[in-house]
Amino acid sequence: MEESLLASAVIRYTAAAATDRGSKRASNEDAFGFSVEDGVYVVCDGMGGAAAGEVASSIAVDEMLRLLRGRAQSGSADRAVMLPQAAEEAVCAANQAIFSRSQRDVKLYGMGTTLVSLVAKERRVWVLNVGDSRCYRLRNRRLEQITRDHSLVEERVRLGRMTPAEALRSPLRNVITRALGTESSVTPDVFELETEPGDLFLLCSDGLTHELADARIESLLDAGLPLDELCGRLVEAAKKAGGSDNITCLLVRAEG
Ligand code: CA
User: How far apart are CA 131 and CA 161, in angstroms?
Assistant: First the structure.
């Protein structure tokens, strides 16, 4: 009985985000966007010469929001079943949009971006990622990394050729093995989760995770502050720790 009551409880999501070019970079190639109404949240970290990275990351964010508009809204039950599939298709369409743009414009050739996206429909959440932008979940004051980086150092750690501590200091730590827009097709990882009231999701670029250890992120998130204040504190902490890259964080809280 208690379980069925819990399962029918309505979950409401609230969100906030912040981005900063950091202390060393001249521009900000990160991008983020979200629509609480549509249940779509995205963080992208662009790469490429000149302004190309900015173009790639904004195309990805815009395409995700555009293609998933209205998909998570209440309606027939099969819409919920379709949502993760629609999200995966949106990632592939965003990949195509960036790739074909880079083929048409020589100044943008080779541009790409990471992507981490969360889509929510009532108690169900799907997280999709390509590259090394991450999703974490804080539940019962414990931080857990949901995504796995598509990066050279992550692969080496997985194969036992590098320790996590070595990976953090490695000069190869920025090398990603999967990106959006650099090839004609891409496959995102997809994680399906059941939300509990109080869950706090963090989507972020590597400008945050390269500067702050998970334990530090956990203690900052555990402060019980409004989401926009938490975002500000994360960004400030990453800047204080060096701020060598663009920093973006997007927080999504499941309210009971
Ligand atoms: Ca970055």
Answer: 20
